[in-house]
Sequence to fold (111 residues):
Amino acid sequence: MQIPFLTLAFIEGIGGPELMMIFFVVLLLFGGEKLPGLARGLGKSVREFKKATAGAEEEIRKAIAEPIEAAKRELKAVAEPEATPKHPFVVTAPEKKAAPAATPQDIEHPS
Fold:
């Protein structure tokens, strides 16, 4: 079974021994006391980068969604009939209201 290698932009084939060597060189350069502080700073940097990326992504989504929503509103306005006539010279007759239905009390019976 072959273990896949981690590939970075310009470094190909970083495996376990290479990572151990890099960690050892960093440990020699900065010492054991400063290493947790460096890792903490790296973690904060990654967190800030993710937050900035999420903010930019949200702005892009809003910029894309706004024209779509505006187009939907325009289509809805076109699809719905208007209350006023479209042409000023066309006059529509008012609707006639139906007379209320007669109830049995309204009908006179010959007695």
